[in-house]
Amino acid sequence: MRVTFNANGRQVEADDVWEGESLLFLLRERLGLPGSKNACEQGECGSCTVYLDGAPVCSCLVAAGQVQGREVRTVEGLADAETGLDPVQQAFIDAGAVQCGFCTPGLLVQTHDLLAREPQPSDNDIREALSGNLCRCTGYEKIMDAVRLASARTCSTSEVSQ
Question: How high does pLDDT run on average in the chain?
């Protein structure tokens, strides 16, 4: 089957898509968007999280055919071509919340989503929002620091622009 959809703001299509193929496979192997990681293939770790029509989903659990005509935004799509990295991406770098990098794409998408909904989240809000993302390297404190930093930067930027 042929699948046509919007990926990170551009129209893409893939031919000969197998009915059981995951969105994760489609993104990584067919479209050359390797940011989302393939860690568990069971929706348990969050490393493959992407936006589907504006909502975070585990792309390993979404059949590629389900994205026909829809909008997908990956971790690559968070960065802005004109301004560079998204504040969330930069905060993770600055806070040292990136180690092996397997969990990072999912954490970035989930954090981006959290801050869009709740610009100044509490620590409990952060823990709840990231509860579906597993990290085996950082011990989570640097991740919490990164989310707090991104929140502070995002809030101060929006206050300046008002």
Answer: 94
